[in-house]
Amino acid sequence: MAALCLDFLGFQEALKKMRDVDDKIIYALNALPTESFKGQVNSESTCRDLYAKLQESHLARQESIRSCITISASNLKKLREKRETQPDNVDTDNQFRAEQRKLRVLQAELNVEDIIKERSYKTFNERCRSYFHAGQ
C-alpha cells in the first residue's frame, strides 16, 4: 500500500474498493431470515462472518491511511528542510504546498473512516443483535 501513497488517486481508488464491505452491508444483512424463516439459515454464523469481514476491512483501511499519513508527513518534513535551504525555489515551494494538501486530505480520510465504521456497526447491531454479540 506504500506505493499507492505516492499515487494519491490510486490510493483513493484502493480505499473505495476496500470500503465495498461497508457499502454492501445492507444487502448482506438482508440475507438474514425473518422470524418465520429463522430455522432455515444459520443467522449467528452469517452475522459472525460479516462482523469478521467488517473488522478486517476497517483495520486494513485504517492501517493503510495511517501508513500514508506517516509517509506524507515524512515527505513534508524533507520538503520543509529543502525549502529552508532554498527559499527562492518555486518548484520546492509548490511541492511543499501539494504535500501539505495531500496530508490534510489523508487526515480527513481518518475522520471519514470513523463515520463509515460507526454507520456500519450501527446497521450491523440493529440486524444482528438477536443472533450475535461481539466479543463472544
Describe this structure in words.
This protein is mainly α and 136 residues long. The chain has one domain. 79% of the residues lie in helices and 0% in strands. It has 6 helices and no strands.
Globular, elongated, flat, extended or rod-shaped: what is the shape?
Answer: rod-shaped
Overall pLDDT confidence:
86
* Secondary structure tally: strands: 0
Poorly predicted spans = none
- Global structural class: mainly alpha
What is the radius of gyration computed over CA atoms, rounded to a whole number of angstroms?
A: 21 Å
> In sequence order, what are the helices and strands, one letter per element?
HHHHHH
Number of helices: 6
User: What is the count of distinct domains?
Assistant: 1
Q: What percentage of the residues does DSSP assign to strands (E)?
A: under 5%
Q: State the helicity in percent bands.
A: over 70%
Roughly how many Å apart are the termini? 32 Å
Largest sheet: none
Keywords:
about 140 residues, rod-shaped, Protein MIX23, mainly alpha, MIX23
Secondary structure elements and their pairing?
Layout: H1 2-6, H2 8-18, H3 20-23, H4 25-29, H5 43-85, H6 90-128
Structure summarized in a few sentences:
The chain has 136 residues and is mostly helical. It contains six helices and no strands.
